[in-house]
Amino acid sequence: MDDPAHGDRLYQQRLEKLDRLRQAGIDPYPARFERTHLARDVAASFEADPQREVRVAGRIVGGIRRMGRSTFLHLRDGTGQQQVYCKQDVLGPERYELLDAVDVGDFLGVVGPTFKTRSGEVTVEAREYAVLAKSLRPLPEKWHGLQDVEKRYRQRYLDLIANPEVGRVFQLRGRIVHEVRSFLVERGFLEVETPVLQAVPGGGAARPFETYYNALDRTLYLRIALELYLKRCVIGGIERVFEIGRNFRNEGIDTTHNPEFTMLEAYQAYADYQDIMRLTEELVSTVATQVLGRPIITVDGEEIDLSPPWPRRSLRDEIAERSGVDYEAHPSAESLARAAADAGLRVEPGWSRGKLIDELLSTFVEPRVSRPIFLIEYPLELSPLAKKRPDRPDVVERFEAFCGGMEIANAYSELNDPVDQRERFLQEARLRGAGAEEAQPFDADFLEALEHGMPPTGGMGLGIDRLTMLLTGQDKIRDVILFPQLRTLE
Q: How many other C-beta atoms lie within 10 A of the C-beta of residue 153?
């Protein structure tokens, strides 16, 4: 196979510089460097003790200014940038001359005292330096080299280097996950891990990814949800349980969907969906306050307050108001399909009544909801794992939370009647037999667990990626996933 770097002039020039460093007895890839100060700390160190020697390290960015016997450069670490000043009479002629073998993009360690330039910038005067990693490829220019959106996603490391604001999004994502975990742990929830490879991919309406396990000679699936194993934990006596983990769904890619995504699922015994509604709005508001300083976000230039309580509204009323279709006036799939098509929905042949309602929601309601809201009173056919309302057996105790034009959470009073659950699994199996690939598979093992008894339980799933989008002001899920799935380049 041809080496793509062969014939690249800049690459070859850097290889020559690498060789020059080695010929001078310098290891361009040493194992470690003892750093005493981060970039953010150097100025404070100078104010406390101007004569103190510091040891800083980072990647050379922004250009190298050579002016005869002196050179200025900037090192960037995880906290910011630090200016460095190199003088020939301090480093010595040979060592100073070797700076010609150093390029933007290289990692450098520098040792020396600090001083202030005429412009007032605290600068490290290099008494010695060490090459910590020689880069063989040039960095993209910030304004010219990394405008290609596809390149940013495919080579995220370059995006992080060229666009510091991208790194800040992922720092915030880390804090969001930490605060979600802390919120639940403080309320007595236990964090667990459940299988990613599953024999029956249940807990959601989605096509799974399939694989083959040679050692067991069986087909397995990447999980599409965390739900059914977490319910097994509740059955086993873990009364408050949660998991933050990856799910995988063999579906399309758009601004709010990626086939590999991160979910929080939490289950609380002796609670119903009303309790979980309060838990959800408190969780989102608290996490926003901890991460942003206040429970306020901006959506399309408008400030949105995430503080509880959030409005509660009927799904039926919201769809009717936004689309003009009252789905309760259309008891059959055929009738609802005609009404939905008349409203402007692109209807696919064979869609069930539940699928049609879900598509009406996704098309006419979800994109238009900017402020946080709970939609409630979902029809039974949309919710095969939720408990029926005692007064209306065609409606389940379920809510979905929406904000910023997308669904962020979904929750139920969990179905704990094994006889009812069996019948719903059988109904889903009939739908699968009729061609509905996203219908729930019959999970005999979960049903057996449920037959041992599960207490009244409220459960909730919240999308970590979408919560991050909401709190960081991003409008595409790919901007909050470090390495999103992309189509293969031709």
A: 18
